Amino acid sequence: MRDYMARSLTIECRGFKVEAELLDQERPNTCEAIWRALPFEGKAEVWKEEVYFEIPVKIPRENPTPRTRAGDVSYWPEGQGFCIFFGRSQPITPVNTFAQIKSRVDNFRHVRPGDRIIVRKV
Questions:
Q1: Which of 12, 27, 61, 70 is the most buried (most CB within 10 A)?
Q2: Domain coverage including residue 61
């Protein structure tokens, strides 16, 4: 039997880069769809303590949750949104949380609307 190897992606913006580990066990279909679409980029939007942008992937709800924590990376089915939660704000409707940023989540407090965000496989 093969050991499970966690997949990760990097998120780069405003001169910083963070790594997020995919939650393949919790939302495998969302993780696979995002993974296959990488790399991609977008222009940041900011809502309270969340950075988000539209991505070229349409994924249905998969075990959606109305609650998030700082460091959660989620897909918002209603807007094809790639969402990075860095504080206490919550999604307007349930999201597919598919990855977790382990460190330096506070860097996203410096992101401004229109900033370029690049997401790649590790």
A1: 27
A2: 8-121
Q: Is residue 12 part of a domain?
A: yes
State how far the Cα of 69 lies from the Cα of 58, in Å rounded to an integer: 23
* Residue 3 placed within a domain: no
Q: How far apart are CA 71 and CA 116, in angstroms?
A: 19
- Whether omega before 39 lies within 30 degrees of 0, making that bond cis, reads yes
Domain CATH for 27: 2.40.100.20
